[in-house]
Amino acid sequence: MRNVLITTWAIIKDNLSSKTTLFFVIFFPLFLTIIFAFGFGAAAEPHVTVVVNGDSGLAEYLNHSVLFSGIVGSNEKQALLHNYIYVSVNNDTFTLYYPQQDDYLIPSLKALIQSYVTGGQTVNFQTVERQGFTYYDYVISGMIGVIALSNGLFGVTGVGAGYYRDKLVDRLAASPLKSYEWVISFIIYEIVITLISTVPILALGLAFGFLPLISLSFIGFLALATLMFAGLGAVIFGLSPKDKLFVAQTVANIVVFPLMFLSNAFFAESSFPPTLRPIVEYQPLSIINNVIRDVSVYNTIPSTFDLVYIIIFTITFIYFGGKLMKLRETD
């Protein structure tokens, strides 16, 4: 354990003294958050998911509208937690539960429901306004997951490649340090860097009215997310030929950007084409974002599926990353 702590501290000191590292740790996440918060927060075309309970035909009808995506469901609480409008249908009575910021959409939704009901049937509407969450809450909490992803993959592959290039690995290989201790040191470094990167994002969030629930579970899941992606970074780095280390960084880029933009980090799954939604919904970053939002925004317990998913992927990546990312070829 002593070797791990010494090596971790050396990696932290070495990298935090680099202006390039500081840019990607602090300023790049801020820059990306500002782009999405300002660029899409107010100007994005509204497209709201409506959860319908009691009439699957209405959900299908809403799917053909410009403003709404209709899905069938019966969980009012979960719908409102995710800023969806919930419609309960009971004969000719339609009860609309909606987040307060979506009140301007209710007249349009009522008109669509009225047009859906045929034969001149009388429609009784009841509306219930609930506390909702803004797009800023959504995108800033999603950016926290992106930080864990980018730091985990880029950190391991980038720092590892630099150490090989500068021959520091040769010096470490001549020391008593074991390969698994080297990998653990890298991963602890990535967790520390992720926690540091998260602070300015949360500070920026205050300017947008984002007040996350910071708890031990939030910090724990953030560390676990970084652990999972750092393990994936170790797998990529371990499989890359050491005489062509640019391959590791190239592969990291190929993995990170699709995971980042084909996820629920910045937009809900319903915003994507139907063919892409299963990929977006079940890829690792989206699952991480679900958990982060559950504990920091929605104040609810993450689903068992999400927790099991993260644990399995984390153990798998760490195991194979530890096997592949060797300090010495003989290890």
Structure explained in plain terms:
The chain has 13 helices and five strands. With 331 residues, it is an alpha/beta fold. The longest helix is centred in the middle third of the chain and has 31 residues, at 135-165. The model has no long low-confidence stretch (mean pLDDT 84). Strands 2-1-3-4-5 form a five-stranded mixed β-sheet. The chain has helices at residues 2-16, 19-41, 56-62, 76-81, 106-116, 135-165, 168-173, 179-207, 216-239, 246-261, 277-282, 284-298, 304-324, and strands spanning 48-53, 68-72, 85-90, 93-99, 124-130. The protein has two domains: 2-40 and 135-324, no CATH class; 48-81 and 84-130, Alpha-Beta Plaits (2-Layer Sandwich), CATH 3.30.70. It is a multi-pass membrane protein. The chain crosses the membrane at residues 21-44, 138-161, 182-208, 214-239, 246-267, 307-325. It is found in: Membrane.
Entry keywords:
331 residues; 9% strand; Alpha-Beta Plaits; alpha/beta; single chain; 2 domains
Content of β-strand: 5-15%
- CA radius of gyration is 23 Å
Low-confidence stretches: none
- What shape does the CA trace take? elongated
Multimeric status of the protein:
single chain
* CA(first)-CA(last) distance: 18 Å
User: Sheet bearing the most strands, described?
Assistant: 5 strands, mixed
Q: Total number of β-strand segments? A: 5
By secondary-structure content and strand pairing, the structural class works out as: alpha/beta
**Count the helices. How many?**
13
Mean pLDDT: 84
- In total, the number of domains comes to 2
Strand order of the largest sheet: 2-1-3-4-5
- Indicate the percent of residues in helices: 55-70%
Helix-strand topology string: HHEHEHEEHEHHHHHHHH
Keywords: Membrane, Transmembrane, Transmembrane helix
Protein name: ABC-2 type transporter
InterPro entries: ABC-2_transporter, ABC2_TM, ABC2_TM_bact-type
Subcellular location: Membrane
